[in-house]
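Q: What changes when serine is included in the input?
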Amino acid sequence: MDKILVIGACGQLGSELTNELGKIYGNENVIASDISQPNAAIKDFSFEQLDVMNSARLAEIVDHHGINQVYHLAAILSAKGEENPQWAWNLNMTGLLNVLELAKEKQLKRIYWPSSIAVFGPSTPRVNTPQDTVMDPNTVYGISKLAGERWCEYYFEKYGVDVRSLRYPGLIGYKSLPGGGTTDYAVDIYHKALSGDKFECFLSEDTYLPMMYMSDAIKATIDLMRAPDEQVKVRSSYNVSAISFSPTEIVESIQKHIPDFKASYNPDFRQAIADSWPDSIDDSVARNDWGWEPAYDLDTMTSDILKNLPELLSSFQQA
Ligand code: SER
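A: The predicted holo structure follows.
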């Protein structure tokens, strides 16, 4: 019987992944944890407050619930990390090492940990970035994710810890908000478009970044975690890709539904972060190893969000 702990369950990815895991394993077999108080999105789950820096508390929760799989999602993202690099490094690295060490000691069945396109840097080939290539990240977030990838492979090779990872592109969902990332504009823009506001973008209009709709990200995560051992050949982290677009292109996609929607551009410090990342990603290794395939492109994602977000927003207003 699998018993799963999600660390960072209140976050953008965590709140949706927790619900999806509940559908597969049963809500009673998924424990949500976060440093924050529980939110409405995870109200159907047992909740434990956890600062992942506290390894004793982490071990206590794992023992108490008989946990055998951990999804460790808690991290400081790229833009927020630059405001306090030591803090971001400390949290991102110590958190991961606490989870890996626990997995080794307690011989947990499987660990999931997300990496990011932020592991790439200015010298990385920018278009169709390969799985194995130059990696020279220049954000503390990217440095911590690259170091984390090396630690994951180390724990797999030396101790047999079955840790699996994806290099997510920017994740776009309408059910929960991101915090502190460089790709967050592509979530905020839909909220502005629906409220009738003009949108001011913190990236320039022609900045291409790799992105993915949340339902594809959840599918990729669960497919990787349920893949047979022999199919998981990369133990650092897999490139996964779905969509690549610029702010101009997402505006045009929204204008097909809301013709009056307008955006202006006022790049800030996040432009330099975006400029150091790839435009698009080659994910052929993930496709070949465990059959990864995304379902959504830019226009199908836009239609889905603009159809479902108004109802969600009005349910929040009524609550
Ligand atoms: N979405 C993340 C960020 O912008 C990238 O992994 O920081």
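Observations recorded in class: The two ends are 36 Å apart (CA to CA).
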